[in-house]
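Support case: user asked for a sample of complex input and structure output to validate their parser. Sending the pair below.
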Amino acid sequence: MKTVIIGNSGHVNYAFRGAEVNPDIKICSAAPGIAEEDIGKLQGAVPVIYTDYKKMLDREKPDIAVIASHFYINASIAIECMNRGIHCFTEKPAAISFSDLDLLEKTQKSSGVKFCAMHALRYEPAILAAHEAVKNGLIGIPWIINAQKSYKLGTRPDFFKKRSTYGGTILWVGIHALDWIYWFSQSPVIEINAGHTAAGNSGFSEMESSCLIFLRMQNNAHASCSLDYFRPAGALTHDDDRLRIAGEKGIIEVREKNALVLLHDQKPFNLPLSAERSIFSEFAESIAGESKLLTGADEIFTVTRLALYAREAADKKQPVFIS
Amino acid sequence: MKTVIIGNSGHVNYAFRGAEVNPDIKICSAAPGIAEEDIGKLQGAVPVIYTDYKKMLDREKPDIAVIASHFYINASIAIECMNRGIHCFTEKPAAISFSDLDLLEKTQKSSGVKFCAMHALRYEPAILAAHEAVKNGLIGIPWIINAQKSYKLGTRPDFFKKRSTYGGTILWVGIHALDWIYWFSQSPVIEINAGHTAAGNSGFSEMESSCLIFLRMQNNAHASCSLDYFRPAGALTHDDDRLRIAGEKGIIEVREKNALVLLHDQKPFNLPLSAERSIFSEFAESIAGESKLLTGADEIFTVTRLALYAREAADKKQPVFIS
């Protein structure tokens, strides 16, 4: 599987990790997604660096493009690749506008290429273990789900400072929480309300420092996503990701890389963690027809649309009802 | 301060605790709030048991009534007491309908008696410590607040099974979380959305097993309350109460009776816990004019109204906008 990398503003490490565990994957070259993007850190990590990704595609004729440029341009780059019959593994969010997302989905379906975005937090071993347990009925139907993403702000590129290039914190951070909820919930979302604010963002201009999302499911289950960049520099880890799923038979809470289970008839215990899996390796396998991807294209589009609805609700300060 | 107890379906232990620490408080008698209420457990704990609380009020002429009968009747009993010039310390929620609450508030103002409901979780030493820290600016303006109340279901009286006698889980459990948020937030609530379901309630009929509340503040801060009766019997403690407050300068999280602080320039640490305080003793002192109550009547009415709005939003599956 000949693979090229376009851009270095996201988690291209997933691609390198995939190539490590899957010898069928050959990463042959990289190029910036836009002229002003610095991909200097890829020098030495890939055999060839191009300055123009379209020329790279023409020359290399890859099977797979890994796309991780500035967030606003990733959908356009993916569409460009799809139109050349190249399978796309792209940074999330798959798109930062409804129109980009619609065109991306249409192009993916008409081109027939495989598509996956980096909804990679499904692959966290504690999350995989929790999902397996919930799917097997350990806690009953999930009636309330609480997701949290709390990040250290640290240093971030300037394109995070503008909605037009960044897309918003609900899209960049919240999509992981929404992806968990979509995956764990046993019923579709019928209503999203949300709020966000750039207040307290330490000079990051339009970038939202914190967001809250409320979701109502068709079966009357509910879910929340709490998102923020307030995790202080003094905290022990970069992120404080949490996922709590509660049902009549028990509660599972993923936190600090463990999945704690509370049940009625026994003491609290941690689930055995699932084996490490590589999202990119599995994407490559799905192209070869060897497996079904955990995060298929249709789910990626659905979850991205949920994130866009949530951003819309937050912008308008009104819920979005989904029929 | 001559004190009587009406009903034994709530937290009358706050009154006994107050009498322990404040020798001015004399609990002289008790009566059921309604004929079918069993107050047998108060036998021996108070000198005299009456069968009719109105006769008790006529005979004893108390300074204070502690009211904790079935939830639907507490507002009416308080109004009866207020009309006799008796100060009221009542179980929360202060009322389970807007009309009861309006009449209660009107009667309290016209009668001039002191009024407090058992919003006692403000008095948890970790919560008091966290509030003091937030008030003093330790974490900056709170931009996102997440509250959780998760209870073991255990055995509960039959009147929990009907909305008309119970009021709803948002009112019974959620009011504590809303009280925290109201107290910690530095801006008024302008929008409440909510959801609740009785699904998975182990046969408790109309009683909601889980609820989620979304709050938008005027200053664009946001808050969530996650409420459930799903805490399994196997868990170590009855409740899993949490309150997380995040701002630009740091995060405070109250959990398991401690208040953990994360700041940018130091390692995580627990706040020194505040000294134990008795809500009922302080209520008695406020009557004597010796102190200002932490939970004044106007705040009780405001928070109860928030809970009623949240229940309305959950029932209608539509946000309530508060002007």
